[in-house]
Amino acid sequence: MRYWLIKSEPDEVSIDDVLAAPAHTVAWFGVRNYQARNFMRDDMRPGDQAFFYHSSCAEPGIAGIVDIVGAAYPDATQFDSASPYYDPKATQEQPRWISVDVKAVRKTALLSLKEMRTMPELSEMRLLAKGSRLSVMPVEAAEWKFIKKILK
DNA sequence: GCCAACGTTGGC
DNA sequence: GCCAACGTTGGC
């Protein structure tokens, strides 16, 4: 069982949207970075948990906790020429990008990026590393524990 | 809107 | 395989 942080732009899909969805579950799609994809493909498993992070917004930070509820499957948007996530090099036979379904465990009070940067316990966190911009990244067990404890 | 830090593409 | 040019992410 592993821990993750996954990013979403709340203008696209927020933690409220996940909670409002049937079974509190949505497809988390649109990853178009190989390193991020490889984490999903190789290391992410059903039953893993993730912090749901709001990015590219007024107050970026952790906004909730989700479960990974199923195995990865081809991201449908790669085949959709009308989608901004369309990838002309992907084929049905050889999909390039994958999605997972995530289920909201709960919404939390926002733990902002700014606050996290002030916490010595999180100084080694991948999210806070210079130049870090992966949309899926592992979270160390100790960091997970610490953050979970302070999340309201 | 700016820009740092990456990542990707494609000519050679 | 190198690397310049270009594109993207995402905080600010």
From TrEMBL:
It comes from the Bacteria. Residues 2-149 form the EVE domain. CDD domains: EVE. InterPro entries: 5hmC_binding, EVE_domain, PUA-like_sf, THYN1-like_EVE. This is EVE domain-containing protein. It comes from Massilia eurypsychrophila.
